[in-house]
Amino acid sequence: MDIGIVDLSRLQFAMTVMYHFLFVPLTLGLSIIVAIMETVYVMTNRPIWRQMTKFWGTLFGINFVLGVATGITMEFQFGMNWSYYSHYVGDIFGAPLAIEGLMAFFMEATFVGLMFFGWDKLSPVKHMVVTWLVALGSNFSALWILIANGWMQNPVGAAFNPLTMRMEMTSFFDVVFNPVAQAKFVHTVSAGYVTAAVFVMGVSSWYMLKGRHFELARRSIAVAAAFGLASALSVVVLGDESGYETTHNQKMKLAAMEAMWNTEPAPASFTLFGIPDQQARETKYAVHIPWAMGLIGTRSLTGQIEGINQLVKGSEERIKRGIIAYDDLLKIREAKGDVSPEVKAQFNENVGDLGYAYLLMRYVDDPRNATPAQIQQAANDTVPTVWPIFWSFRIMVALGFSFIAVMAYFFFVSNWRGMQYPRWALRAAVWIIPTPWIAAELGWFTAEFGRQPWTVDGVLPTALSVSHLSVGDLLVTLAGFIALYTVLFIIEMGLMIKFIKKGPYQDVELTQDWQQRHEDRLSGRSSPVTMPAE
């Protein structure tokens, strides 16, 4: 396979996925925040909360539409650019995606119209239920997609069939309750909640700085601070769980994240800062925190975290066992399964390493003819480029802890300082609006780039997964995607900025009348009741 085709296919898919994920976190979090606001409205019957629900719901709707459009394009790429991957593991990978469409996307599509156009046709309680169903649908959608992605990171509940040359599902339960997928789901969803909280807080702070929509802004900040603080704490805790699962299932990724070239005596230290040098296999100017990585990665004082050099040697042994499995596979296929029990037993013993033999196909057509140098070269290919993973992970973690500090401060001011936010804090809240997206994209980069050279970890190399396309085809479609997504991004930003500047334009008179009566009651005055116009 032409490596240029592989790299271009990866670039195209990475571009579409990372662009799509600009919309996903805000959709996940804003759907829950809107549902919370409407719940408060139903409980209190205060028009200000209805106005808040409609305003933030409008921004949710804009983001939701663009997310759906870009997500559909992304899923088509599995058939267009990754046809052999789809053939090889489609029986397993396709099942969660199909359920996502049937269960989650249909739920969202069914109720999102009622959410936006059913205010005057449904009772407040029924409309609130609809809003919660839209929020649950959005989160269920993320669940099934992350189950599919989690299987790529930790392929459980499946077995290779030598006669069909495909992976087949053996346990749907194991696929669904894959610990990597579950940890990834809760971590990703919590990150989306933080994104929405920072967005709501930043926009509301901008209103307060401009002296506009004060009542909506301060209540929105209070909701976002409480919701965001809980979510930010969850991100850190659940990120620790993801790291623990990586220790057991993706050791090379963890070693690359830490730039840990050699196995350290337990418990391993955490590298706070350093400059990884992949050619020299060392980390220059490293600053370590003793014991930290061992405690995080193994939750013990005795568990070891293997280094990159030791893992490469292990990969060499797995490649050799994979060659044995490959030889037995050809015998089984040639005899159409009618081989001796010894061959079957030997194949079953080594089939778990068959994917490592496929790594050799980058250098030789038949892995059985590989030289020791080629085996060494393929083993070295199991090491991803370390420095971008190392730094992406650290920037993501630093941003995660900064969100806790920001949310804790605004939560404190909201509850114990009468929502009297200093102007410097409001300005800071506006400036940090992009940072949750940066953290989310860096997290996905760490997870996906760190899995290389595998599409399905230990099972199918990326170089074998692509479709038979030409470089010209990929360049043309890549340029087309970039142009289309640039237009969509401009439309998205234009609509969001337009409606943010416009502010809450629905239920304005009703909300103002209620607010005036409320202030009069607090001051002991009375004012006439103004009914909203029909």
Automatic annotation (TrEMBL):
Bilayer topology annotation: Multi-pass membrane protein
EC annotation from Swiss-Prot or TrEMBL: 1.10.3.-
Principal localisation: membrane
Subcellular location: Cell inner membrane
Transmembrane segments: 17-43, 55-72, 92-117, 129-147, 185-209, 221-239, 389-412, 424-447, 467-491
Record-linked Pfam families: Cyt_bd_oxida_I
Keyword terms of this UniProt record: Cell inner membrane, Cell membrane, Electron transport, Heme, Iron, Membrane, Metal-binding, Oxidoreductase, Transmembrane, Transmembrane helix, Transport
Stored InterPro entries: Cyt-d_ubiquinol_oxidase_su_1
Molecular function as annotated in GO: oxidoreductase activity
Enzymatic class: oxidoreductase
Family, similarity comment: Belongs to the cytochrome ubiquinol oxidase subunit 1 family.
The protein's name in its UniProt record: Cytochrome ubiquinol oxidase subunit I
Source species of the chain: Thioclava arctica
